[in-house]
Amino acid sequence: MRGWGWQAIRAWTLLVYAFMFLPIAVVVLLSFNANQFGSFPMTGFSLQWFVELSQNDAILRAFRTSLLLGALTAAISTTLGVLASLALVRYRVPGENIISTMLIAPILVPEVVLAVALLLFLNFLSLPKSFPLLLMGHVIFTLPFVLLVVQARLVSIRRDVEEAAMSLGASPMQTFFQITLPLLMPAVLAGALFAFTISFDDITGTLFWKPGGVETVPTQIFAMLRNSISPEINALGTVMILITVGLPLLGLAIARKINQKSGA
Amino acid sequence: MSVEARERKQPWILLTPALTSVTLLLFVPLLFIVVYSFWLRTATGADDPGFHLDNWQKALGDAFYRDILLSTLRIAAITTFFCALMGYPAAYFIARSKGNKAILLLLLMLPFWISYIIRTMSWINILGVSGALNSALMALGVITEPIQMLYNEATVILGLIHYLLPFMVLNVFVSLDGIDTNLEDAANSLGATRWQSFLNVTLPLSLPGLAAGGLLCFVLGAGTYITPLVLGGPRDAMFANLVFEAIITQLNWPLGSALSLMLLAVLGVLVMIYNRYLGMTQLMKGLG
Predict the structure, then answer these.
(1) Which of B19, B72, B122, B189 is the best residue to mutate to test the A interface, defined by the most A CB atoms within 10 Å of its own CB?
(2) B287 has pLDDT over 60
(3) What are the residue boundaries of the structural domains of chain A, listed by start?
(4) Minimal CB count within 10 Å: which of A131, B65, B116, B171?
(5) What value does the CA radius of gyration of chain B take, rounded to a whole number of Å?
(6) Is A94 exposed, middle or buried (0-12, 13-18, 19+ CB in 10 A)?
(7) How far apart are CA A240 and CA A119, in angstroms?
């Protein structure tokens, strides 16, 4: 029943996927290239760029900064997001729509503008570019994503379960930690992972906020690009892809396993 | 305290940390740069507080800024157009395919997890002087000398499409997936051809998704300065590059404030028009 029209759409979709993934595949491919300039042609398989990467102090420092920044961002913005979601989903709050819009606002404002405003305001308060400024910036623009993920899940957790716990004598605190939080855990983890990845990837705001001498992985790549295209960049890119793609996929796999176990 | 009073207070306690953060780190700073944009950076590098219109005169009156604003909007519009052109059929295919929908969707989400800077710089490997395309053409004997294909407006647009396409596909997919396929079948059974039922039933119903994807592509595209820095030449600066220049390089913060606010105003008007006609819920569907 599906004619040539469907075939054409299928071919088009294939081309779109190729467009999305070919350049990324080339990054991974070149990172294993034995060629001394790290560019085409491929002359053989080699791990030399990864070895050089692991000996490059600047890159290792950037990695540590990015991991710390991402982890702290995830912890803070998930905490803020979960608390706010609870209030918005579980209580009738006057002006709920305005509050929701306010909390989502960081993704409605272009990141450049957010970056400029935060930088100049904190500078005015005599708080210069620093790691805490970087952290505050990352928290503020990851918060909406955490909020959206957690709220969506919270809506689907039935109130009855919580009410049952309370009617059996559990305090609101006990109910939260023993009933709501475990049920909400997948969303909390997803939100935290989301916040981590967004923070780990960010460059637009980070270039404004980072103090001189401090680099995150993306700003380090950016700085390396400006000098010359060193083949280490492809290796670094491959590592980045492994972290930001591998981590969520691993999380997904673990979540599935847990679900299977508890389902059986 | 009565139970009711506690019930009333509790949500505010839960909301306080998030609301305080957003207020202090976003709204107050935005108000601050409004004030700041009327200050003046003097030759000595000090700020002269007060009410000066110089920055705004420069930002709004100078042809240099106006031209770059216009070309930024043009680049964002072209990017959005191509995202729609490439993304709609792909989203349609995913939404209507039987079977491996989950895999197709996962593949579509993958680029979101791959760093923006990596995706942008990956094009240097393809189009650079020693990139894949030049190497291939030389190997085939089509050219003898590598051609410089990078660092122009076309490669900026290419990079932006590559960055923004997933937003478009995802938004269109969400709205296509929500359409009852019985509607198409009904149209077909009443004698419409597949093409007619698509044009008259499916396409109109999916327009909210297309609009949401379009808005995201346009706003994100118009607000970027990394892509022009990596894939553009010296003459391909976009408006956000001017902001970056003013703030980071020239350290003219009052002017940078005025330029940021201009960008916010232009893109804000678009978001408001969108919100007026379609509401924010569609956008949130695609993001969540």
Answers:
(1) B122
(2) no
(3) 47-263
(4) A131
(5) 24
(6) exposed
(7) 27
* Residue range A222-257, pLDDT digits in tens: 998 877 667 788 899 898 888 878 877 777 777 677
Looking at domain A47-263, its CATH architecture is Orthogonal Bundle (1.10)
Chain B: residue nearest A80 by CA? B18
pLDDT reading at B180 higher than 50 = yes
Q: What is the ipTM of this complex?
A: 0.90
Other CB atoms closer than 10 Å to residue A212's CB: what's the count?
A: 6
Please report residues of A whose CB lies closer than 8 A to that of B219.
110
Give the pLDDT band (50/70/90) at residue A1: very low
User: Which strand (E) or helix (H) includes residue A62?
Assistant: helix A57-90
Residue type, B132: A
Best residue in B25, B86, B149 to probe A by mutation, most A CBs within 10 Å? B25
Q: How far out from the chain centre does Cα B220 lie? A: 2
Kindly report the nearest CA distance between residue B278 and chain A, in angstroms: 15
CB contact under 8 A, B86 and A222: no
With CA atoms as reference, report the closest residue to A142 among A66, A185, A198.
A198
Tell me how close the Cα of A196 comes to any Cα of chain B, in angstroms.
Answer: 11
User: Tokens 């913005």 correspond to what residue?
Assistant: A77
Task: Out of B114, B122, B194, name the one closest to residue A5 (CB).
Answer: B194
**Full set of structural domains in chain B with CATH:** 56-287 (1.10.3720.10)
